[in-house]
Design a protein that fits this description.
Oligomer: single chain
Number of strands: 2
Number of domains: 1
Structural class: alpha+beta
Strand content: 5-15%
Mean pLDDT: 96
Strand order of the largest sheet: 1-2
Order of helices and strands: EEHH
Shape: elongated
Length: 107
């Protein structure tokens, strides 16, 4: 079910409609507002330019986070593969030990 949230971003009122919770949508709006306000104050740019720069900065952060996530996935897969190999090795060693113990018991 879509939620509607009205918020102010850089002095303009916007109504957002999304499936996310109102608190999440407010958090997103606040992030955009903060980024644009920061850019307008520090770079002395228009609201339009601040919106474009905020979008570029957030897209950059998103892509870097996606790359980081993919690197973590690859690292996790490598760790899981290593753990699985170690588990298989332990199983093989247990079988060998069991066989050796059976051979010792026969003597």
């Amino acid at each position: 079910m879509a939620n509607r949230v009205t918020m102010t971003i850089c002095g303009e009122s916007y109504t957002l409609v999304a499936d996310e919770t109102p608190s999440y949508m407010e958090k997103v709006g606040a992030m955009v507002n903060d980024k644009m306000t920061e850019l307008m104050a520090s770079a002395h740019v228009s609201r339009y330019d601040a919106a474009v720069l905020a979008a570029v900065n957030m897209a950059d952060e998103l892509l870097k986070n996606q790359d980081g996530t993919e690197n973590l996935r690859r690292q996790l897969k490598a760790y899981l593969d290593e753990a699985n190999a170690a588990k298989n090795e332990v199983s093989d060693l247990k079988r060998q030990l069991f066989k050796l113990q059976q051979q010792q018991g026969r003597r």
